[in-house]
Amino acid sequence: MSYFKILGFSKEPFSTSPDPDFFYLSREHETALTNILIEIRLKRGLSVILGDVGTGKTTLSRRLIRELKEREDLVFHIILDPSFDNEELFLTYLVRNFEIDMLDIKEPTILDLREAIERFLFQKGVSENKTVVLIIDEAQKLTDSTLETLRVLLNYETNEYKLLQLILLGQLEFYSHIINIPNFFDRISFKYVLNPFNFDETKEMIEFRIRQAGYQGNMRLFLDEAIREIFEYSRGYPRRITMLCHQALKSLVLKNKFVVDRELIQEIIDSEIKAGWRKKDSVLFKNNF
Description:
It contains twelve helices and five strands. The chain is of the alpha/beta class. A five-stranded parallel sheet has the order 2-3-4-1-5, sandwiched between helices.
């Protein structure tokens, strides 16, 4: 039997999979999500969300997709790994995944692919009054060639709005890349940086995920002293919090204990430090970049 069932959960509370049901909407995540949805509704074009590894960018993208699925006036696609070697491969990918008609062209050129995408955007955006959204995760992997292609696609517009709504989610180093491409950087309508949680948000996230997993017990599983240790060691990074809580609940079962206290967390932390698993943190930006 899984540890979470032994403790009275119906689901695993601290999985690291990007399940939108377990996405704790911190103030910064809520700000990012709300603004992205506004940008899409107003058809402003380009939004960029940055964050260090483990700050919840991928889970935010899944929550965004859930919101988009509720609207019938949207056509959207998400790219999880934008590692394209050249423009032709990228354009071919877009044509295939948006199911764009190539008008029976057997061996399309780059110009043919661009024209097909342009026709598609005008057909959906003007004739059908729909909004086309492209979400790209791991945006720091985008090459200069792909960024230039995206810049060209963002030029497709009416007198009132952009025909493609583009959301890029990337690690912090993506900033140093795009800041040196002015004709792309200047097109960003909304830009935001996801920073780690503070202590209160760390506590709320842990309690939220416990509730979402169906815990019905009357006794608290994590004492405040334990949450304080988790916060200080994780530095408020959601992924680290999740993994540490997962280890804590496993230890709870293995040690036949009833509550996660400071001592239990400290044992886990000491074990990680002794094994050499601790890494240095990146320098974070302040909103907005």
